[in-house]
């Protein structure tokens, strides 16, 4: 709609309409095929010859739609713009109330009931808004999208939460200790208890929870980001015992093996510094540095 000279390429992925989640209307088609047809219909209503292509990419969603040429001359641009306005408004109506099954299209003929209806005389209010306000109430996302996956939180704040949660698990009763036989001697290492995310959250102060709620995934994301210390399974938080971790697979892709080797001893071991029993692994086996002298 930007201009008559505009062309477009789109790779449909997530199933969304103009005003929210796309609602299925045809059970005879797969959800993906139905959505592709809907996106193709949008292109047709906007006056494009819509072409379809399949990309050579490693994805299940690899069908692209391209609009390179128009179905009408430049002199009819204003009429088509009114048709687009009517189409947008009709989709908005469908989003508010349950819409009829009027959207079925095929590649031979993308014109359906909505397109035929769009060619009819428009109500006065729609005619007035055509070309000025494309979609009343639509809020586009910011040009610079804020990172909200806990990665941008201050390091001292994250370290404080990690230490608090770890102490909570270690001091929970009854303590769960893991024994390990090494050289004939039994060494006991406190792995602490497991608690639900809700139980953990109940022990954090209001300011911390408020800060975490502004992030996607909140507390769970922060704990999962700290993979060295925690393991989150089925909504429960555990202290990670590195003795139970599987050794690197020989079949692992070369790139991943190289990255893993390059990261060896590049960060300090949290357990060596903070855990009351130290690290559960000897220095030569731990992927993290036992002291600054081991850092690479």
TrEMBL record:
The gene is Trmt44. It comes from Atrichornis clamosus. Transmembrane segments: none annotated. One of its GO terms (molecular function) is zinc ion binding. This is tRNA (uracil-O(2)-)-methyltransferase. It catalyses: uridine(44) in tRNA(Ser) + S-adenosyl-L-methionine = 2'-O-methyluridine(44) in tRNA(Ser) + S-adenosyl-L-homocysteine + H(+). The keyword Zinc-finger applies. Adenosyl-L-methionine (AdoMet)-dependent tRNA (uracil-O(2)-)-methyltransferase. A zinc finger (C3H1-type) spans 263-293.
């Amino acid at each position: 709609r930007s201009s008559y000279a505009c062309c477009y390429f789109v790779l449909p992925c997530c199933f969304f309409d103009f005003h929210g989640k796309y609602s299925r209307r045809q059970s005879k088609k797969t959800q993906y095929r139905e959505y592709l047809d809907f996106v193709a219909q949008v292109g047709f209503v906007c006056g494009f010859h819509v072409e379809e292509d399949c990309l050579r990419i490693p994805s299940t969603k690899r069908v692209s739609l391209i609009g390179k040429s128009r179905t009408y001359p430049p002199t009819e641009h204003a009429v088509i713009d009114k048709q687009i306005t009517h189409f947008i408004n009709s989709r908005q109506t469908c989003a508010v109330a349950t819409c009829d099954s009027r959207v079925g299209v095929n590649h031979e003929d993308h014109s359906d009931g909505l397109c035929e209806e769009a060619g009819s005389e428009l109500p006065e209010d729609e005619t007035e808004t055509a070309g000025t306000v494309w979609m009343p109430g639509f809020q586009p996302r910011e040009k610079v999208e804020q990172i909200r996956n806990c990665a941008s939180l201050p390091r001292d704040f994250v370290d404080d939460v990690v230490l608090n949660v770890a102490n909570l698990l270690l001091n929970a009763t009854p303590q769960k200790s893991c024994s390990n036989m090494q050289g004939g001697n039994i060494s006991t290492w406190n792995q602490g208890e497991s608690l639900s995310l809700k139980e953990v959250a109940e022990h954090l102060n209001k300011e911390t929870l408020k800060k975490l709620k502004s992030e996607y995934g909140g507390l769970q994301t922060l704990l999962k980001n700290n993979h060295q210390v925690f393991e989150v399974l089925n909504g429960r938080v555990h202290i990670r015992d590195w003795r139970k971790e599987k050794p690197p697979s020989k079949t692992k892709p070369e790139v991943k093996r190289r990255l893993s080797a390059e990261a060896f001893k590049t960060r300090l071991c949290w357990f060596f510094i903070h855990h009351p029993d130290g690290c559960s692994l000897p220095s030569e086996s731990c992927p993290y540095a036992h002291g600054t002298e081991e850092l690479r």
